[in-house]
């Protein structure tokens, strides 16, 4: 039997406002068994382990993902969450603008403690699962023509996504639109994060010492 060689372990914290679907994202990513009927209880704290193929060949990399309890209020992270992670996954719900606003508070907390740990990677996920909730109103069988003034009003979800794109661009953070009900949408963000946490070793521009010694010995003979 062939087994994959396991590489380094990256510690990642996933966080955001309570109810944005952090645990649902992780359950779908790791196990792929979440659907619209799945019931998940609010998280206090949990740990998931994912073995990731970054596409570079060789050893698979490991992510140890810490699922934190949903934040409320100003969204300040507990102190111990600011010291051990190598990376952060910040999640918000595009149907709830306040969940995006909370990420700014979380990012400020992380920046204040960056000197505690170098090269901290951060990505932002817009969880579109809210658009597929079972309790969302069904489309009416008869289409009603709205007044022109109402038709021209911008989509509030698109407005939140555009604001998130602008904020992430300023902060130099990668922003992904995902759906907790669609597992393939979760692959790219976590593979990209894992690749950033485990960059390939840089090759030295100097020749190997052994090669230098062999060349010197050849010239002396």
From TrEMBL:
PROSITE patterns: RAB, RAS. GO terms for molecular function: GTP binding; GTPase activating protein binding; GTPase activity. Keywords: GTP-binding, Nucleotide-binding. Gene3D superfamilies: P-loop containing nucleotide triphosphate hydrolases. Residues 132-158, 199-221 are annotated as: Disordered. Residues 141-158 have a biased composition (Low complexity). One of its GO terms (biological process) is negative regulation of canonical NF-kappaB signal transduction. Residues 203-221 have a biased composition (Polar residues). Belongs to the small GTPase superfamily. Ras family. KappaB-Ras subfamily. PANTHER family: NF-KAPPA-B INHIBITOR-INTERACTING RAS-LIKE PROTEIN. This is NF-kappa-B inhibitor-interacting Ras-like protein.
């Amino acid at each position: 039997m062939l087994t994959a060689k396991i590489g380094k372990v990256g510690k990642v914290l996933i966080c955001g406002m309570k109810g944005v679907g952090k645990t649902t994202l992780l359950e779908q990513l790791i196990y792929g068994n979440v659907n619209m009927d799945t019931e998940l209880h609010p998280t206090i704290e949990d740990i998931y382990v994912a073995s990731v193929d970054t596409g570079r060949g060789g050893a698979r990399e490991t992510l140890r993902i810490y699922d934190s309890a949903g934040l409320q209020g100003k969204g300040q992270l507990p102190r111990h969450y600011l010291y051990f992670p190598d990376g952060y996954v910040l999640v918000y719900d595009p149907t709830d603008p306040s969940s995006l606003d909370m990420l700014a508070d979380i990012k400020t907390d992380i920046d204040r403690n960056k000197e505690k740990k170098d090269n901290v990677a951060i990505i932002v996920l817009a969880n579109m699962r809210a658009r597929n909730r079972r309790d969302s109103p069904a489309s009416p069988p008869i289409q009603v023509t709205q007044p022109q003034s109402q038709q021209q009003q911008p989509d509030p979800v698109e407005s939140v996504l555009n604001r998130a794109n602008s904020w992430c661009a300023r902060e130099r953070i990668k922003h992904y639109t995902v759906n907790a009900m669609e597992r393939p949408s979760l692959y790219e963000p976590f593979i990209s994060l894992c690749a950033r946490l485990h960059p390939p070793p840089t090759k030295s521009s100097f020749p190997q010492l052994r090669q230098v010694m062999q060349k010197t010995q050849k010239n002396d003979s």
